[in-house]
Amino acid sequence: xxxxxxxxxxxxxxxxxxxxxxxxxxxxxxxxxxxxxxxxxxxxxxxxxxxxxxxxxxxxxxxxxxxxxxxxxxxxxxxxxxxxxxxxxxxxxxxxxxxxxxxxxxxxxxxxxxxxxxxxxxxxxxxxxxxxxxxxxxxxxxxxxxxxxxxxxxxxxxxxxxxxxxxxxxxxxxxxxxxxxxxxxxxxxxxxxxxxxxxxxxxxxxxxxxxxxxxxxxxxxxxxxxxxxxxxxxxxxxxxxxxxxxxxxxxxxxxxxxxxxxxxxxxxxxxxxxxxxxxxxxxxxxxxxxxxx
Amino acid sequence: xxxxxxxxxxxxxxxxxxxxxxxxxxxxxxxxxxxxxxxxxxxxxxxxxxxxxxxxxxxxxxxxxxxxxxxxxxxxxxxxxxxxxxxxxxxxxxxxxxxxxxxxxxxxxxxxxxxxxxxxxxxxxxxxxxxxxxxxxxxxxxxxxxxxxxxxxxxxxxxxxxxxxxxxxxxxxxxxxxxxxxxxxxxxxxxxxxxxxxxxxxxxxxxxxxxxxxxxxxxxxxxxxxxxxxxxxxxxxxxxxxxxxxxxxxxxxxxxxxxxxxxxxxxxxxxxxxxxxxx
Amino acid sequence: xxxxxxxxxxxxxxxxxxxxxxxxxxxxxxxxxxxxxxxxxxxxxxxxxxxxxxxxxxxxxxxxxxxxxxxxxxxxxxxxxxxxxxxxxxxxxxxxxxxxxxxxxxxxxxxxxxxxxxxxxxxxxxxxxxxxxxxxxxxxxxxxxxxxxxxxxxxxxxxxxxxxxxxxxxxxxxxxxxxxxxxxxxxxxxxxxxxxxxxxxxxxxxxxxxxxxxxxxxxxxxxxxxxxxxxxxxxxxxxxxxxxxxxxxxxxxxxxxxxxxxxxxxxxxxxxxxxxxxxxxxxxxxxxxxxxxxxxxxxxxxxxxxxxxxxxxxxxxxxxxxxxxxxxxxxxxxxxxxxxxxxxxxxxxxxxxxxxxxxxxx
Lengths: 293, 279, 362
What we know:
heterotrimer; B: MetI-like fold; 0% strand; disordered N terminus; C: alpha/beta; D-Maltodextrin-Binding Protein, domain 2; 2 domains
């Protein structure tokens, strides 16, 4: 019965949605106001900025030119964008694989343990980002702990350069975004109906099949949410790739940031940012279209 | 009766009959332990270095408590840390409220421009921080004519935090049994009551999740803070980020160690207290 | 759980700092005629906007103790961050700390208040070669704070070669063993210097000329880092670096195996100065602070914390011999004579950035 309800919840849910009355509008207003004031207006500011030109040290002339966008379609910047997307994709995939079992374990734990474990997941990230990352640098450097261990255990003859490589960049990214994968998956796991899992086993499924055919599909919303919360922010996250990857190759976040600093071209940075937004919206629109079919 | 209605009933009794599931639990438990080890390795290192007598955290040079004593005299660092906590807490509260109510209203009702709102919510997540900071600064200064300080900082932080909460709660809402709320309404509850007594308990794990994420994001935010802060509301990352030039002061390690230990103790204490209350 | 944290934060609210001071017009006191201790503004506040960690807190506190002026310090990690906020408005800063090329631009765009030299008698402590520099003739708008160069650091345990020039550093055998500043302007200027092109002639043709050199150099670099290039050197991940002098000085102090080399082809000098923006509300207080910083004992304390090139001659005498002899902190007179400073290159900055980014991305 519960399974039936879940399976059809999307349809019934859709039909179930009511037209909003006045109280509903009232409740939604804070969100609307916030969106208009602090999302729409800054975005408009950004678009206007991208159509301008920077003169001198920082004055922007609003000339309504498209040349920033024209410049953005140069292979130099597109390549940088591609590199960033690749890093983000890799990070998301690794976070999913590493994070799912942990999220599952926490979600199926007793109620007491769940909150403790969840908070414990987050606590490392309440330390300053810089000192955490420098701690990793100390671990991964040629004279660092990991190399010292590997050499003394005779696993490798000489220290290897782990740091300042793409591997270190992705490691740093995974480390920083793992909680953002674990938490959403956890919320999906937590609401798993035991009766369903019980039913799967009763029908003869081994643990592997029960997992792949029942549990993972049921927790799919959590996985999708986690993937979004990792993939999207990590595209523009350049602090980690700079610190642990040595700043080479450059990422789109770094490029945009530089336009506001040494590049002296804020409008160009804004144009790149708007392109990012456009790309994102396009892919979101495509995936929603696909899901509707 | 209300209390009984609040105990989550959708989980049912935890089955323990299957050996396969127990093995699975052990394997997953071990994996989780490894994940925790991974998460905490740099933390252990920075705790260790908070006792390092050398200033540059490259080599261990001897045990010392001097960073702790210096930390307590470092008024600016402590003030910055306090500011970070204040801003992060306010941000968490606001972002969680906005995210929860927003997610619910969008799920429950058919508003016009639903799709547009859905897109707009993602913008603060997609937009690179320097762009968000610059555009918010321009807005605060030229359109809203607000002085830069705590308020602008909190607004800016909330803006990029609440989408994280909202997305998380939407995921949880996907699996909501629609008849849950219907049942409450049939029993005579007003929509607001039904929300508070039935939906919120159901959403609680994702609300807590979202709150934890918001707090974390706000605590460590640097770029947006640079643009939207005033002189009085300097947060910890702002003070810290320039420190790299002269070598990160181990006082930071001391501060982080204290905070980590304090938080862990708080969490365990609160669990102990609830256990005492329930027994 | 959140409740606990909220309570914790709120409990501290009692000690929360004051809300941002509303901008009050400072009533200017009449210009003092004597040089002794000029009076400040009636409003005893000062808003400093400076590089993070560049002005030790102890000095700020000492200033407050002596004058009763409350100082609030806002920090930034790059010149352009400061410019972005300055141009956007919203912050009223009384004192900023720009680098030399920025000052030139600020003067051109009329963003600085002229400094009253009468109010800053300690100006006499500045070494003559640092007064009246090309970016601010007559020191009308700025007072030098700290200077430095960019040079080569060699880890002599890993590299036994005699490194003297940029070309010595950027050799194939040192592939992926080098750290450089993540600063496009710097990198291009090194290329120029190695080719004998004046560093401020950043024309399109010169950029085309230096492109093949940079094409050869950049792939050899392992780490690009402007914030803390010393880290890669200290960790042993790289053996050579082209870094700020201050970083070099710290490395030399840390371990004798590091050697500092001023590139033979030439180096440039950067000068960070204190300046007062046009929108400042407490000009007199700012001038008092500058005068305070220029005191020998105070300036020596700054040197202690940041081993850069201190233009304050009187302060240099208070430094230890070890500090004075650090070749990274204090280049020889000949080396100094050969150095130029960066000039503002306007929109060419964008072209430089694009050149370096495209070469990095290859």
